[in-house]
Automatic annotation (TrEMBL):
GO BP: fatty acid elongation
Listed InterPro entries: NAD(P)-bd_dom_sf, SDR_fam
Coiled coil: none
Pfam families linked: adh_short
Gene Ontology terms for molecular function: oxidoreductase activity
Lineage: Eukaryota, Sar, Alveolata, Ciliophora, Intramacronucleata
Name this protein carries in UniProt: Uncharacterized protein
Gene Ontology CC annotation, any one: endoplasmic reticulum
Source organism (scientific name): Euplotes crassus
Gene3D superfamilies: NAD(P)-binding Rossmann-like Domain
Entry keyword set: NADP, Oxidoreductase
Length: 290
């Protein structure tokens, strides 16, 4: 385990992704306007991929589009405005698929994600449904829409599912988030077992990344979106289940063992600490609004 971690983080070199998946082919990035999504766009554009930018806010998408094109003069893009919380019907996904089906898509990144920061017994039913639509239905349905095209391509293709390290435990305060991410990881295992010979599947498991979703937390255990995406693209095609930093691998192991064998310690440290952090962030936000 340790050797694998050391090799991954210090010795491994990335593959030539443009050569592997086809230069000028298209990458679909959901949640492209967020911290990790925008970084995937930036790095893939630099490597010569064209981009389908999925997001729910047209202005944010256009702003990202302009910025990416300014830095990459050859880049072609297509913007798709879609709110995964709103609809999970077959018609909704068929409509999205029809918008981009003619493009030579070689990479699908299921990155959009959301957290409901509330105790389960208090959470609004609408938010619970949105969370499962965004974190589970979205990735599963998009993958279903593209899988047959991917299997027909002569070059290899890739699917990255952005899960979370928090899936290894029933995380305090955001239990349904951990559960939806565990779904996504199991879904990736299914894809790997059935299509791994033709499609590079990646189950990406970061702990805290400094983005909106984590309230821009920083500290010795956090990483930047750039670090997260560089690690993901370095491992793509070489490792199925990946954790983007040594410190995150360590945290994952520790949480798993504590939750399984040392419940009181797990509650006294991780749960209390986590809930305090969230409450503090909530009060700070509230104070700043006043
Ligand atoms: N940050 C972390 O600590 C961390 C750790 C582990 C895993 N992850 C995972 O990483 C992925 C990216 O998150 P991030 O950290 O980059 O957070 P982020 O900056 O908040 O980005 C989330 C992205 O998802 C989009 N999104 C949210 N709700 C949506 C909806 N209803 N329909 C369509 N798109 C929606 C957001 O769009 P808007 O720009 O319009 O809000 C944004 O583009 C998520 O799947 C998250 O679970 C994050």
């Amino acid at each position: 385990m340790l050797a694998k971690c050391l090799i991954r983080n210090y010795l491994r070199q990335p593959l030539d992704l443009a050569k592997r998946y086809g230069k000028g082919s298209w990458a679909v990035v959901t949640g492209s306007t967020g911290g990790i999504g925008a970084e995937y766009c930036k790095q893939l554009a630099k490597q010569g991929f064209n981009l389908v930018l999925f997001g729910r806010n047209k202005d944010k998408l256009e702003e990202l589009d302009a910025k990416l094109k300014k830095d990459n003069s050859q880049l072609q893009t297509q913007i798709v405005v879609a709110d995964f919380a709103e609809d999970n019907s077959a018609k909704f996904y068929e409509h999205l698929y029809r918008k981009i089906q003619k493009l030579d898509i070689s990479i699908l990144i299921n990155n959009a994600g959301a957290v409901i920061p509330e105790f389960f017994e208090n959470c609004k039913l609408e938010s619970a449904i949105s969370c499962s639509n965004i974190n589970m239905a979205g990735p599963a349905m998009l993958t279903r829409m593209f899988i047959n095209d991917f299997l027909k391509r002569t070059s290899r293709t890739a699917i990255i599912n952005v899960s979370s390290l928090i899936r290894v435990v029933p995380s305090p305060y955001i239990k349904e988030y951990s559960a939806t991410k565990q779904f996504l990881t199991l879904f990736s295992y299914y894809l790997q077992d059935n299509y791994g010979d033709k499609i590079d599947i990646q189950d990406l498991n970061p702990a805290v990344v400094t983005t909106n979703l984590s309230n821009h937390q920083t500290g010795p255990d956090t990483i930047t979106p750039e670090h997260c995406v560089t690690s993901s693209l370095r491992d793509l095609g070489q490792e199925f289940c990946t954790v983007p930093a040594m410190i995150h691998s360590f945290i994952g192991q520790m949480l798993f063992v504590m939750n399984k064998f040392m419940k009181p310690l797990y509650r006294a440290t991780f749960v209390n600490d986590y809930e305090m952090k969230i409450l503090r962030a909530f009060y700070e936000q509230h104070r700043n609004k006043k």
